[in-house]
Amino acid sequence: xxxxxxxxxxxxxxxxxxxxxxxxxQLAAPTFALDKATLLAYLKREGxxxxxxxxxxxxxxxxxxxxxxxxxxxxxxxxxxxEKHVSxxxxxxxxxxxxxxQDSDMHDIFASAGFPIGKPELSAFFRQRDHKHYRLCGDQxxxxxxxxxxxxxxxxC
Length: 157
Known about the structure:
With 157 residues, this protein is an all-alpha fold. The protein has helices at residues 3-14, 18-28, 36-43, 56-71, 88-98, 103-112, 119-124, 139-154. It folds into two domains: 3-71; 88-154. Helix 1 (3-14) packs parallel to helix 8 and helix 6 (103-112) packs across helix 8.
């Protein structure tokens, strides 16, 4: 999935304003500059005039900020390094942490989106990249997870 889609999905899921999105990014990186005009360009759909592709650094800061926004920040822990490349697996991991999801919650979310997966398949997405059972999270799987998580957070709309 492109980063813009992830950003738009999470914004809709949590019903966040433009300023709140900027504030969440600032939680992870107070020195990271993101203005409202750039954010609005990221939120446009591909093909719309003014569309700008969201780079991995912005999405990584947003996802880290989302974790701090939902769970709080532990000042005793050092800041984690920012992901250089945000893959679908990284998005899945960070959403799992931000929403404090257990395996059973994840299975329920996938099932509610009409995309049930098995336990071994789910655990393969969270393994280290060099592990023999590691599996890439595809766009369809992440899209269904975001859909199911939206249903869980917002309720059946």
